[in-house]
Amino acid sequence: MRDLRYIEDVSTLVIDQEKCIGCSLCTVVCPHGVFEMKERKAVIVDLDGCMECGACVNNCPVYALNVTPGVG
Amino acid sequence: MFADDKKEFHGEAIQILPSMPLNFNVGNNSVVSNRSSSNASLCCGTVSFIPPDFKEKYAVPGYKMECFVTGFVQTDAGQVPLVSTNMNLRDIFATAIVRAGITRNQYRISPGLYATGEPDKNSEVLVTANFKLTFDVLRSSLKGQNLWILVLDTKGVNVWCAAGKGTFSTCELVNRIHASELEKIVSHRRIIVPQLGATGIRAEEVKKQSGFRVIYGPIRAEDIGRFIENGRKADSAMRQVSFNFYERLILTPIEVNCALKPALITAIVIFMISGIGHDLFSFQAALMRGIMPLGFLLAAIVTGAVITPALLPFIPFKSFAPKGIITGSIASAYGLWFAHLFSPELLSSIGKSGMVAVFLFTTAVTSFLSMNFTGATPFTSPSGVEKEMKCFMPFQIIAIVIASILWISSAF
């Protein structure tokens, strides 16, 4: 979805690098390629691509991710 | 194997639902419902194949016939309906109706386990939603595959939306695995859940509660064959959603449909305020003056619900409301130009203030409808939509109020 972009700097997605165990499940479930693995940790590489669907938050085994979407 | 009989059978098989008291033989293959408690016989003895008029002759009251079921597979957990990977004319017609936004809330199939091809104990299990449109897209992309399909009860909603709303959930998946006795049907302990279902599923919890390991499959059903061939691995293209021209256009009939009811109310209001004039209120004036803004209302609906979505990436701005302001002002300008060409008298009769009123009204309605399309896209974040609504809705409302005042004043 590089050709269609939405409003910047609004996504409430946050990752706690301390908690991350590098399982890479967030890179699997994210439909917009928001995450990448760097040095055995997941990092957010495209925050503005995030649509706050919550797939990563729901599947993170160590609860390292959080998102608080608005009412839309 | 049951598949041998498929050539002879051209009619519709019935879908046997759990607890259906049936016990009959098909071909060389004994098809017996182990769920039968009464052992009631449907036919007298053994039939070699299911006759085409089976549905009419042997329909059991209270059970629904499904046109996509071609037979049954006998398993250790009873018989499982075998589904066709072909769409028949009825499916295609129903798809068109649902795409138009008619009866889409009732377009569902019975949840539970289905089979396609000739699956065995080592075959993969796909999980999906019980929205018939979703199920049709899935089964028609499974040609030549031998698979089990576990359909969750999502109340007739597609996988992604159901996952977001909590019906495509860990709880429903675990319960459905248990209800269909999946552990008796396959010897492995893995299920392929569509990636977009991840919003509603917690893989770790599914494993804990059911023993089945969740593997997130590709987003699109068409990639399932390659995904399985690649050893259940998806490439990055399979993992990213797209929203191309066709994918946007197919959503527009529902956008138009949803706009019609508010549009009818708007049309009534237009005629009411168009009738206000020197005589306080005149029906003749309402009809004469109301016809033009009504035309512009229709133009706004087409522009906001079809043109903006179709041209989405080519219209400047990232927010949808300003995209709508652009398409809406172009549509209004074109509309006024057409009015000038075909009926200059009508245009001059409303005066400058009337023209400004029509322009503001059309632009505001188009902007609102364009903003409404955020709900149908796969890339807009709720936080972003909230920001955009707070920012642009005041302008849209002010524009409508000014347009109404100018329109009424143009009658005097």
From TrEMBL, chain A:
Q: Which InterPro entries match?
A: 4Fe4S_Fe-S-bd, 4Fe4S_Fe_S_CS, Fe-S_Ferredoxin
Q: Which Gene3D superfamilies match?
A: 3.30.70.20
Annotated organism of origin: Desulfamplus magnetovallimortis
User: PANTHER family under this entry?
Assistant: ADENYLYLSULFATE REDUCTASE, BETA SUBUNIT, FERREDOXIN III
Report the residue ranges that make up the 4Fe-4S ferredoxin-type domain in this protein: 11-40, 41-70
* Assigned keywords, A-Z: 4Fe-4S, Iron, Iron-sulfur, Metal-binding
Protein name, as recorded: Ferredoxin-2 (Modular protein)
One MF term in GO for this entry?
A: metal ion binding
Pfam families registered for this protein in UniProt: Fer4_7
- Segments spanning the bilayer are none
UniProtKB/TrEMBL annotation, chain B:
Question: What Pfam families does the entry give?
Answer: CdhD (PF03599)
Q: Which residues cross the membrane?
A: 263-281, 293-312, 324-342, 354-373, 393-411
Residue stretches making up the CO dehydrogenase/acetyl-CoA synthase delta subunit TIM barrel domain = 108-225
* Keywords for this protein: Membrane, Transmembrane, Transmembrane helix
Q: Which InterPro entries match?
A: Ac-CoA_synth_d_su_TIM-brl
User: Has keyword Transcription regulation?
Assistant: no
Protein name per UniProt: CO dehydrogenase/acetyl-CoA synthase gamma subunit (Corrinoid Fe-S protein)-like protein
Q: Which organism is it from?
A: Desulfamplus magnetovallimortis
